[in-house]
Amino acid sequence: MSTVFSATYSPEDNKLRLYASSRLDADTYQRVRAAGFIWAPKQELFVAPMWTPERAEMCEELAGEIGDDDTSLVDRAEQRAERFDEYSDKRAADSAQASEAVRRITDGIPLGQPILCGHHSERHARKDAERIENGMRKAVKMWETSKYWTDRAAGALAHASYKQLPEVRARRIKGLESDQRKQVRNVEAATVNLRVWTHIQDDSATTLKRADGTPITFAQRAVYAAGRNSAPMGVYSDLIDGKVTPGEAQACAIKSADACLARAQRWLVHFENRLAYERAMLEEQGASELLAKKPRPVQLPLCNYEAANGLDIPNMYQRGEMIHYPQVAMTQAEYARINRDYKGTRVVGNSHRVRTAMVRHSLVCVFLTDAKTHPAPAAIERKASPPRIAPPSSSRRVDDTPAEIGAMRQNLRAGIAVTAVPQLFPTPAALAARMVEVAGIGPTDRVLEPSAGTGAILKALPAGADKVAVEINSGLVAGLTRLGVSGLRIHEGDFLGCNGDLGTFDRIVMNPPFKDGADIDHIVHAVKFLKPGGRLVALCADGPRQGEKLRPLAEACGGWWESLPEGTFAEHGINVRVAMLVIEGGA
Fold first, then answer.
1. In the CATH hierarchy, which fold is given to the domain comprising 423-584?
2. What is the 3 state secondary structure string of 367-425?
């Protein structure tokens, strides 16, 4: 089954479109691509970005003729915008899907969640952190791609409307007229070359000589007659070097001139058709006056009058700036003796001109004492020229980035923080809220969190309290600074090394490290920072050593000890028995 072709041309966008009924064979496809056609899969056609004689010949060879394209530029822009909107919707759906995947993972591991070093969940948590970062990158990229296609759709419609404006069409016509004049010159040059190379004769038998006796060869006469550039590339050198005969050079030059002439004439026909179309469209829009030639500017009168204090004249190189020129009086004879390169005129007040000259290396105004004088004309206000219509801008002026995508960008810039901290057991949110409730923190209380970790307890503290957090791990300190907790002061260091530098506190809420009885040392040390009448609420391991050391300390001052249910820290993949104790400060 042979392939059936059809071709169309649209003068609105100056593009050729080639349609094929079936897949092209390899040779035809390569020829079409080499001619500059591009395959448009959504439209199922080959499109050339602009008309050229070679592309038109390709279409005529395959399709037989080139028909008119019935689709207008605006209709085609609307179809294009619909395709772009479809792309945008697909990428927006991909972004939403990636965002949902990130949310599902972050429900189990908050961004920046530290990982227990050596714990059995470490590898799983690190894998989750990697999935979070990849998902965030995909969500942001897909949203940006969606916005790109949305902007492309708006730009396609705006560009089509812009191309239809009468002022833009008039400028396009003037550009086509300029291109037409160039092709007229090409036709004239090709015609001259063709005539010269056709009529030149090889009369080497009757050798011509110059005045000095040296012979003039056929090649030199051809070059003198038609010009060196009239011969095709390389023919001139081959002729001089004797690689081709004069007859061969002549035949090659005639063939080249014929091809150039035919190509230029085809361009001329194309420009005539386009100009006829554009002028008809401009006339239909009722704006043919835009093609009228602008009148030549009228030269302002040259006036001669005396200005004792000089003249203020606009700076021709800096808009809005004035330059003061002193005035020098001289006779017409003295002025005539000044070299013409050092004389000129300047416009004053947009109403007249005055003479200027270089005198002693300075530019001055000239008053001719023995010439007719004129009254100084009044200034004329310059009329503002109409603003030039600029192409529609494709830049996004309004930042309509969703808050979720913006937050993902910020997290990606900072990096997905994964900090390995030995024996860190982040406090579950529900337990942190209960500890704060038991502490009974008032709006004027000063609160200490001596083992801040990831800030789970800090986030549960009321907004009005003055808060101090102590954390030894620098990676966790960086995360605490990003929490945005009001009234928080962070001290980086070992809490057991702090003595009187932190002051005393009304409330202390803490979840200390448990390893090797460290919770006992931390809680006993924290009691030293408790004000009289204050309260300390802490978590510790529910073991025999803690029961022996800490339980009596809590019960002796009116506090209490509560063993928490098993699985309190199960959400972090650990099963450790934990107790909560309350210590009341003495009088």
1. Rossmann fold (3.40.50)
2. EECCCCCCCCCCCCCCCCCCCCCCCCCCCCCCCCCCHHHHHHHHHHHHCCCCCEECCCC
**CA 215 → CA 200, 231, 289, distances in Å?**
17, 21, 61
Partners of residue 510 on adjacent β-strands: 538
Q: What is the mean pLDDT of residues 57-74?
A: 90
Q: What is the pLDDT of residues 483-510, one digit of tens each?
A: 888 889 999 999 999 987 889 999 999 9
Per-residue pLDDT tens over the stretch 300-324 = 999 999 998 999 998 988 888 999 9
Number of H helices, E strands in the chain: 15, 22
β-strand pairing of 505-510 with 446-449: parallel
> In sequence order, which residues have a C-beta less than 8 Å from that of residue 55 and are 6 or more positions away?
16, 35, 36, 37, 48
Residue 364 three-state SS: strand
Residue 379 CA from chain centroid, whole number: 46
CB atoms closer than 10 angstroms to residue 344: 13
Neighbours of 115 (CB within 10 A): 21
> What is the model's pTM?
0.58
Angle 173-80-152 from CA coordinates, rounded to 5° = 85
Q: What is the Cα 211 distance to its own chain's centre? A: 68
Taking the CA of residue 161 as centre, how many other CA atoms within 13 Å lie in the half-sphere pointing to its CB? 11
Conformation bin of residue 354: beta by default, left when phi > 0, alpha when psi is -120 to 50: beta
* Per-residue confidence (pLDDT) for residue 214, from 0 to 100: 61
Name the pairing type of β-strands 327-330 and 343-348: unpaired
Residue 354 token pair: 């005055």
C-alpha separations of 335 from 313, 325, 358 in Å: 21, 17, 11
Can you give the residue ranges of every domain in the chain? 5-71, 75-164, 167-284, 311-368, 423-584
Mean of the per-residue pLDDT values of the chain: 85
Residues β-bridged to residue 352: 348
